[in-house]
Amino acid sequence: MIRSITKNDLEDVNNLLIPFNYYLNEESFKNEFLGVLLYDDSQIMGVLVYDLIYDRIEIEYIIVDSKNRRKGIASKLLNYLLCENKEIKNISLEVKKSNEAAIKFYEKNGFEKVAVRKKYYGDEDGLLMVKKVGE
Ligand SMILES: CC(C)(COP(=O)(O)OP(=O)(O)OC[C@H]1O[C@@H](n2cnc3c(N)ncnc32)[C@H](O)[C@@H]1OP(=O)(O)O)[C@@H](O)C(=O)NCCC(=O)NCCS
Q1: Beta bridge partners of 127
Q2: With bands split at pLDDT 50, 70 and 90, how would you rate the model's confidence at 51?
Q3: Which atom of ligand 1 is nearest to the CA of 61?
Q4: Which of 19, 35, 41, 78 is the most buried (most CB within 10 A)?
Q5: CA dist., res. 101 & res. 99, Å (int)
Q6: Backbone conformation region of residue 10, classed left if phi is above 0, alpha if psi is from -120 to 50, else beta
Q7: What is the mean pLDDT of residues 26-46?
Q8: What's the gap in Å between 102 CA and the centre of ligand 1?
């Protein structure tokens, strides 16, 4: 099941996020632009965090529990987000240039590499990837 986060989910969600140096707290719920979708099947297996800024979405990150990867969970979260926001024109994200699994995942889902952001992650370059929608 895909659903939005509630405050009761914070501990379980952070168990997934902390190894990747991400963290959500009660303050996150006050950010009107921030959205968090969960893939939940008796336990939380996937998290998609995004910003919805008027007619575009920026994906902050998608994280799927390591035991449950390559089962379509991230794709389902992304498709759900797009179906729920049909009015948007553009969806984008930054990803580490070395994160081949994520780059392949985004390419498979229709994103294109459009720019390199030099030293976006400290020592490492970032890739800006964009998917045009609603055209
Ligand atoms: C990237 C990530 C979210 C993908 O989640 P997922 O649920 O496994 O993805 P899906 O099952 O929906 O999609 C799988 C497709 O993505 C690509 N892919 C995913 N992992 C891959 C890997 N290790 N190597 C190559 N391609 C990969 C493939 O195209 C794959 O299709 P296939 O299985 O038919 O070959 C997951 O690997 C993850 O959580 N990684 C760690 C966190 C991270 O780096 N997040 C992205 C930063 S924004």
Answers
A1: 95, 116
A2: very high
A3: 48
A4: 78
A5: 6
A6: alpha
A7: 95
A8: 5
CA geometry: angle 6, 90, 55, nearest 5 deg:
65
Q: Within a 10 A sphere around the Cβ of 82, how many other Cβ atoms?
A: 17
Asked if the model's pLDDT at residue 60 lies above 80, the reply is yes
Backbone angles phi, psi at 13, to 5 degrees: -65, -45
Report how far residue 67's alpha carbon sits from residue 110's, in angstroms, rounded to the nearest whole number: 25
Per residue in 80-104, pLDDT (tens digit) is 999 999 999 999 999 999 999 999 9
Distance CA 40, CA 43 (A): 5
Strand 44-53, strand 56-64: pairing: antiparallel
Alpha-carbon dihedral sign for residues 84, 36, 11, 68: positive
Q: What is the pLDDT of residue 135?
A: 65
Give, for ligand 1, the residue of 69, 99, 124 to mutate: max count of ligand atoms closer than 8 Å to Cβ.
69
Whole-model pTM above 0.90?
yes
